Structure formats: structure tokens, C-alpha cells
Predict the 3D structure of the following.
Amino acid sequence: MTDQKWRAVISGIGELKPERKTDGVNTMDLLLRVSAEAARDAGLEPREIDGLLVGPQVGETPQHVPATVAEYFGMRPTMSNVVDLGGASGPGMIWRAAAAIEMGMCEAVLCVLGNHRNPVPPRSPNRNPAREFDTPFGASGANTSYALLMQAHMAEHGCKPEDYAAIAAGARANAQRNPMAIFHGKPADIDDILASPMVTSPLHLLEIVMPVAGGDAVIVTTREWARKSPHRPVHLWGAGEKITHRAVSQAPCLTSGPLKPAIERALRQAGASVHEMDFLSLYDCYTIMVAATIEDAGLCEPGEFGNWLRENGGMGPDARQPINTHGGQLGFGQPDLAGGMTHVVEAVRQLRGTAEGRQIAECHTALVTGNGATMSEAVALVLGGSE
């Protein structure tokens, strides 16, 4: 036995009676029933559960699984993930939950698995609000949904099209310093952005990320093993996560997203202010995403991102707080889900001092953000370099 004491313990369990076959049973309902039983056994109110680990099989969606489950359960977790280890998924969830609690990401984690045994999967579109309230009315796909968010932001704050276009122009300018960027050698200024075709009003073509093939990888080790690397290690000082919805129709707010509490948690863990960050590596699938993130991070008041960017001196490595020096996804390209990892990789390069041709003069701290679905799944990291 070990003397090590973890903060985390198992405090509640739930279990459904096995059935050889089911008819018209929905997996989401099974998961909800057994989760409610576990919460009661633990003596917890559903609102007190702030972590969620689920399996890949929920019968509703092949993507955004934790967000879909959280939305159906009425949860807004500060840590979530899919654990896909076959028969080892259950035990794998337990230590991940303990690690998340130890890290301070959450206080109570729901770990849930289950599935039906129907001969034919039930047809139940009302289990997924996106299918009932969004898609039938034309709100299908990311372009339409992010255009809705941008419309709401413009209407509430009076921001101008050129304010958002400046973000895409800044990404293109940074891409000119990165030979690996898909738009290297293809600069575009604000006028070019606004002259590009309107895809879904008010989003122009060049305000929308370019899908590309590619990949990114990161190795995380102990500090001892990090000595094997020829590079200075980069440290994780803080992390935050939050899910608020899946379907844009269920968003609690259209002008501010879950990155706001995620960034607050990451900065609080790091004991730092956003104004102290030397580099901002912000997820940028659409220009509105960067605009909202700048405001949600507390860099400026809501609706003032355009003025803040101008006072910041743009987005390049010589700006007061540089943004997405590799070009961001708007300039570098989005290699599917690896698009979010490009922001981590660029932050590591800047903190190591190896961002050739675009190195920030003094870079010791970085804020990295990730975004999923329609401004609904959020992760923020505070990274620091070695002195």
C-alpha cells in the first residue's frame, strides 16, 4: 500500500438493472437515469457536479459528445472529456477524474457509461436540441451559427465590419512571417477582407477559416524527463475549462461565451493578470471568435475590441500584446481538430525563443485558448517559459 493521499474519493454510485434486449430505449435517457441515481447516492445536487467524463457511444452525435450530454443533462461543467478505452474506459475515467480534482479543475466529476440494446436505434430527434430548434430553421453548420453570433455582437455593441476584418488582416500579416502558413505570400488588408464574397451575412469569405490537411503534436513529460530535451521546458501554470451548451439556440448568451470563466480560472490558478501575458494565442476559426475572446479575457470592455486592437498596435510580434504570430488558423489554416493545437505549438515556440522570423522580443508568459462547437466548449491555458 502507498501512503500517497489524493484529494479525490469515490462518493456515489449508480447502476441500472441489465436487460438482454430493449425496445425504443434511448441511450441519453439511460445515462441520465443512472447519473441521477449516482448523484443521489453521493448526496449531491446536480448543479454541484462540475466535471463530466463520458464514453463515445451516446447515440446522438459522433462529435461534441460531452457538450451534447451536458446540454441534455442541464450541466455546465468546468472539465469534460470523452474516454474511449474500450473495456478499460470505466477505470480510466476514475483516475482522470481524480487528476482533474487534484489539478483544481473541478470538485465533483460524473463518470458515466451506458448503451441500449435496441434492434433498431430509436428515432428521437428531440433528444438533441440542434436537430429540433436549429437545423429545421436553417441554422445548420458553423458558418450560419457564427454569423448569428456576429450579428448579435454587432447589434448589441455597434461594432463595424472593418473592426472584425482587421482581425483577418492581422492574421494574414502574421502569416507572411511564417513560411509554413497556407496564406504565406498572400497578404490581404482590411479592404481585401471586406471585398471578399459574403458567405453568410455578416461573415465574408476571408473571415472564415481555411480547412487544410496537416497535424500537430505535443509531448508532456515530468520535469526530470524534460531534461532529455535540447529545449527549455514550457510549464503549465493554469488551466480552465467550461461547457455551456451545444446548439446555438441553447446558448445562455450570444455575445459572450464560456471562455470568460475558463480564462478567469486559468489566470487565477496562475496567479496572473491577462494584461501580464506576453503572448495571446487565441483560437480563431472566425473573426468574431477573436473579437469575443479579447473581450471575454478582460483585455477591454465589451464592444471595444476594435479600439483595443488599434491601441495594441495590431497583432504582430511587435505589438504590445502579440496575437497568433504563426498566422492563426485564419492565416496558417485549420488542419481539422489539430487547428486548436497549432495555438499550443506556437506558444511553445515563442516561450522557447525559437519562433524564427516572428519571435517576440520578451516572451515569458502566454495565454492559449481553445474553442469547440459554436462558442460553447472552451479551454484556456496559461503557459510559462523557463528563466
